[in-house]
């Protein structure tokens, strides 16, 4: 069928949308049973599933292959519509004709997936917007389970605010996964009150409506918000009581306030320079730490919790109902696994630490260098103190990854005077180079934990001279800490798959 389908596709590529349907018989006959050899031996249920992987126009073209194929496309389990320059549906007129014929001929055939992709320039045409919305509503009425809508096919998308969907609620009792890329979502669409079975929601490069002060996802279990535009005038509140996993990364505007999520298992939060929660006293290109006293977390370890007196930082008036609630950390406090990353100039986590909740279920924690500011390490100490059952700590220091020059992991045992988690077993560090900053963090941790006689280092593309210097600094740390990491000098490293003794810095 592959060769035949390719020939049919090439033959009909120049045929218009309406003529494509004219080639088909008007009356739907009983689909013939399986027979013959090769793909013709497959039952109809498998064939309609295969047709679901093709673009809609390609699936329609298979109707000319043989009598048995005339109506199979109408029952394809997935619908893929691509509207952009250079594509079959490259003009508004062709899209209108195609959709006008496609949707009625499909009749009541159910859908597992509907994938609608529209080029940014095409979306400015009213006819295109109307027909795409028709496909969206059609899919919802056909018991679709997975719905994806992409309005901007470029990355990044620069004109998101011009891609507005109809401000009408989406209604589907069967929809379980919804992915939206490059669209504007108004309040009427955002709450999704008619999607009682929705569990997965992915929002990428979307703009939340300017009036969306509260968003409720009651049935949602998995939420991903990346590169979205959120209000800069007020803090949006997100209610998702059944959420299991959360990904919040590189979003614009004020960080939304998270309500309680008692079922949360895993969360990834990355606050970047696009966030509006920044201290204006420190610029992005300033290498020094923020010198605004009201931005630090010194109050989190027992001091008073006065409101922030820095006008550029987030004060009590911007936090929900003004009850000194945390913006992020309180909502994340039930998670079992957490990744918390932030740029140095962002203040949202520092402010949250003033009312730091207890992470009573947290077993795995990943922090970046935002949390490890020497010499007091107050932010790191605060969150460790409020994580009583933590088992593994990963520190991603001065290296954004995903690849890191140096990665090492060790087993630890709490000291008698340890005020942090007594359950902590592993500490992992990822960095570019083991310099003075890294050694200060390790020295701070060595005040509360004994490192066991083994650690594993991974070095990638590190010059020999740099490696020798790292070895000397590691030895200096062992000597200055008062409690060596190893009892017999068996601190091993690996470079080019060869074992190296850090104690002697010799190549094995």
UniProtKB/TrEMBL annotation:
Signal peptide: none annotated. PROSITE patterns: FBOX. CDD domains: F-box_AtFBL13-like. Residues 36-82 form the F-box domain. InterPro entries: F-box-like_dom_sf, F-box_AtFBL13-like, F-box_dom, F-box_SCFL_complex_component, LRR_dom_sf. PANTHER family: F-BOX DOMAIN-CONTAINING PROTEIN, OS11G0201299 PROTEIN. This is F-box domain-containing protein. It comes from Eragrostis curvula (weeping love grass).
């Amino acid at each position: 069928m592959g060769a035949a389908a390719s020939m049919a596709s090439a033959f009909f590529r120049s045929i218009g949308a309406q003529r494509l349907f004219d080639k088909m018989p008007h009356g739907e006959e009983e689909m013939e049973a399986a027979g013959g050899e090769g793909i013709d031996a497959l039952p109809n249920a498998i064939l309609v599933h295969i047709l679901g992987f093709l673009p809609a126009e390609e699936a329609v073209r298979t109707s000319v292959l043989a009598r048995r194929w005339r109506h199979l496309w109408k029952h394809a389990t997935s619908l893929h519509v691509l509207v952009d320059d250079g594509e079959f549906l490259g003009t508004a007129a062709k899209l209108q004709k195609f959709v006008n014929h496609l949707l009625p001929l499909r009749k009541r055939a159910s859908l597992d997936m509907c994938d609608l992709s529209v080029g940014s320039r095409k979306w400015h045409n009213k006819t295109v917007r109307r027909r795409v919305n028709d496909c969206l509503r059609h899919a919802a009425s056909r018991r679709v389970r997975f719905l994806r809508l992409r309005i901007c096919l470029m990355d990044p998308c620069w004109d998101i605010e011009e891609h507005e969907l109809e401000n009408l609620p989406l209604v589907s009792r069967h929809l379980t996964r919804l992915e939206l890329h490059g669209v504007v979502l108004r309040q009427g669409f955002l709450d999704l009150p008619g999607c009682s079975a929705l569990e997965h929601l992915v929002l990428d490069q979307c703009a939340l409506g300017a009036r969306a002060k509260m968003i409720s996802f009651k049935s949602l279990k998995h939420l991903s918000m990346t590169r979205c535009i959120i209000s800069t005038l007020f803090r949006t509140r997100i209610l998702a009581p059944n959420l299991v996993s959360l990904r919040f990364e590189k979003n614009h505007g004020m960080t939304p306030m998270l309500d309680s999520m008692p079922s949360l298992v895993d969360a990834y939060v990355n606050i970047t320079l696009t966030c509006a929660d920044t201290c204006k006293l420190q610029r992005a290109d300033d290498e020094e730490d923020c010198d605004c006293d009201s931005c630090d977390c010194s109050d989190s370890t027992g001091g008073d919790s006065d409101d922030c007196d820095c006008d550029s930082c987030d004060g009590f008036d911007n936090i929900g109902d003004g009850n000194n609630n945390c913006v992020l950390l309180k909502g994340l406090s039930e998670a079992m696994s957490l990744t918390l990353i932030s740029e140095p100039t962002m203040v949202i986590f520092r402010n949250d630490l003033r009312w730091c909740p207890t992470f009573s279920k947290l077993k795995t924690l990943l922090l970046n260098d935002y949390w490890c500011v020497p010499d007091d390490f107050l932010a790191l100490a605060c969150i460790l103190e409020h994580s009583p059952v933590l088992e593994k700590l990963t520190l991603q220091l001065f290296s954004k990854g995903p690849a890191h020059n140096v990665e090492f992991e060790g087993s630890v045992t709490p000291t008698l005077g340890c005020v942090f988690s007594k359950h902590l077993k592993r500490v992992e560090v990822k960095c570019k180079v083991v310099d003075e900053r890294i050694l200060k963090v390790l020295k701070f941790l060595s005040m509360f934990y004994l490192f066991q006689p083994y650690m594993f280092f991974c070095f990638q593309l590190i010059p020999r001279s740099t490696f020798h210097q790292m070895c000397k600094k590691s030895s200096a740390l062992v000597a200055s800490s008062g409690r060596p990491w190893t009892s017999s000098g068996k601190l091993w490293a690996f470079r080019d798959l060869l074992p190296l003794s850090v104690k002697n810095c010799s190549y094995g």
